[in-house]
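> tool_call: predict_assembly(chains=two)
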Amino acid sequence: MPEQYVVELKHVTKKFPGVVAMRDMHIQIKPGEIHGLVGENGAGKSTLIKVLTGVYVPEEGEIYVDGKRHIYKNPVQAVEAGIACVYQELNIVKMLSVVDNVFMGRKITNKFGLLDYGYMHQETQKALAALGQTGIDTRMECGKLGVGQQQMVEIAKAITQNAKLIIMDEPTSSLGEQEVKQLMDTVRVLKDRGIAILFVSHKLEELFELCDRVTVMRDGEHILTRNIADMNEDLLIEAMVGRTLDNQYPKIPTTRGEQILKVENLSQIGVLKDVSFEAYAGEILAFAGLVGAGRTETMRAIFGAEKPDSGKIFIKGQEVHFKNPGQAIRSGMAFLTEDRKGQGLVLSESVKVNLIMANMKQYRKGPLLNHGHIKEISQKNVSTLRIKTPTIEEVVVQLSGGNQQKVVIGKWINSDADIYMFDEPTRGIDVGAKIEVYNVMNSLLKEGKCIIMVSSELPEVLGMADRVIVMREGRVMAEIPRESPHFNQNDIMKAAWGGEIQ
Amino acid sequence: MTTTAIKRKSNMGDFIMRIAPLTVLAILYILFSIMHPGRFMTMANQMNVLKQTAVNCLIGSGMLLALITAGIDLSVGYNAILATCTIGVLMQNFSITSAWVLIPMALLVSTFAGFVNGTLLTRLDLPHPFVSTLGMKNVLWGVALLITSSRTIGFTNKGIDSTLWIGRATFDVNIFGFKLFTGFPVSFILVLVVYIFFHVFLNHTALGRQIYCVGGNPEAARLSGIRSKDVLTVVYTISGLMAGIAGVVLAGRLNTANTASAATYDTDAIAACIIGGASFRGGKGTIWGTLLGALLISTIRNGLNLFSAGNDIQYIVIGSVIILAVTIDVTRNKLEARARKLATV
């Protein structure tokens, strides 16, 4: 009897060029239930949300709302079908009033064809009252409300849209303790009204407190759906990480050299809290943790891209204060950013220019650039890194993701740094290119360089790292050397999710 | 091999876009030659076109730098006028007649105005150079009015002919007794020298390439150690300097310092750059493209003049050409984005 579910997905597959983001996914959500959804980074949770809300149109599979099959082609149709979503980054226009936000995109007119604000205010107040938010003035500018209240406005909007299912994507990530409690009460109110909630969260304790059932995703597939009462934390984590390590990591044995980088109590309000660690020559130090745990922010603060509020950084024993990335580069640092296109490359420029961007001034002969030297170096990069490009004059935007990444790597190899910070170095590139990236790391290690690798892929961390630091909510949770018995997926995940390692 | 096919297509499109201004210029030449027989294709008229192009070329070179960094400099027109007025005021109120004082002072004033533009943008974190340079446009106009007491200053027979020489002088080119050019403007020689310098600067110096990098992706440039803010400040300072040089040329061409004559300089410069392949999104544009764009605009104006079309018609036509050029720029970007999407499949 499909009618017993308010929303049901059957055999849904969503493909992107080169990857299958979601394969044969199914999920059933009952009316008035709070359904948890968990999975590692990149497990396919966001893809699932986007398919449910009509942002993505899946290639295969069926979506049922109240037992009726829906094929929606855009988000508006998903809303009409009764599916609303409260995104982590709220969809609030801060300069508009509460009522304008609640009725955004909908036109309620009176008999003169003008907007019927009387009715709109009344409906908004009713919806907010149902959430226990009688204190919010519907005429108020949304920007003046706290984040928690803005979220309530979004939920009120979903209620006025007669949503049958409200998806909440990491709703507690930016809330304070009190606001989290209030949100949980609100979710229970919604449940009592018969509205189903799909609750996506990185915080296991919230799931256990709130949810009726939970679904685990991994690698774009459905792993299990259980009553939360039948689960515990260990079982959930096991389901999330559960794959075995394949041997695609060309790890070489190395010896730890001198201490090159030392960070003491690095803090940045709301982002980093007392981050301390050391990194050594000839060693790969990995940073594991969930998205938003503060790993990239740590790297940016060390590199001078962001100014930390407090803390000390030492390079080879010397304390440094970088005002900008240029100074960090001159002190022997290289930072391969996670966002290749946004922060690593100038897409409209040639392979050649991108390769010399970090130390352009070293290619001068007199006041002019020495094009012969630049050509020689770029061609060397292209052949040693096996960058597939017709010529070194090709604009980078024409290259594939893996080759673009190699250009970024080439840029930093040319800058001849001592400390290489790789932020998600293999994201979005295929297996073959990944192995080539690992080989580059190995050759850097052999030259006695220090490598810091931020990675959200646990197999990669376990495959390549000599030591791993696990971060959560801006803090260092654990430091695990390769020899430790805790150097395994479950213990790292446990630390990343806020658990204790025994 | 879908990618190569697409790439060939986009290269083809690229090629067409690149030669488009040249083609249009050629068509205009044929058109005007037929419509104005014996008037358009004369030596005197062609030299006149070059003379008219010089100021726009000089202002346009600075504007090009701003556009490459995804910015804009709306103050250039009045900055040039301010340079002319500086010469006028120094001559009239301080009785200075030496070109060795007048020209450097004019350039200094304009360069400083450009430096202020850059500083406002980078140190006060104003949202877009549109804001800082639009404000400066009015400030500079006000300063020009203030120092001249809103009066027009005439340069005829004031003993400063050596200062006016660059904007005024012409010469003949004879090769083996054959008159190649008569009345070739010195100001256009200046343009060619400046443009060769710009070509070398943009393509063969680290700073020049860094300007493109900052324009293409300021964050990637910053994280690669390029001081984006300093680069931007230099760009607007150079733009000010170029406006100053244009102001010196203007002094010779117009023979007056007149605060009311800057009306079309900013838009003409922007149009020249965009027609020549620069983009409001930054990251691209060449100096030779700007030269073509400037020539195209001068030719259109000249052709309209020969029709005895007044300012009214010229404004309408040039305005439409600017909108057309921007439309082409936007279409070009869309096509590129499409080719990019296809190329990644």
